[in-house]
């Protein structure tokens, strides 16, 4: 994923650390597109070497059946708190509500 040049100055409220991670697929105007082609660009056999981990370890640490909530403690000394969330559902239509105080 690209970004802005190092000499470009963002407004202070938009100055966050650069993106680190992987984005494999996205869609634009309802057309799925791949954001990379490792075989063509890097001659990398992605069946032998995964460029990005595509699956996270599953956990039943917080399991909700229909309703529920979780309270997540923040990191007390983090300058920019970050949260990771993986949601798996078996329904076609659902609602996820996130509230921050």
TrEMBL record:
This is Laminin subunit alpha-3 isoform 4.
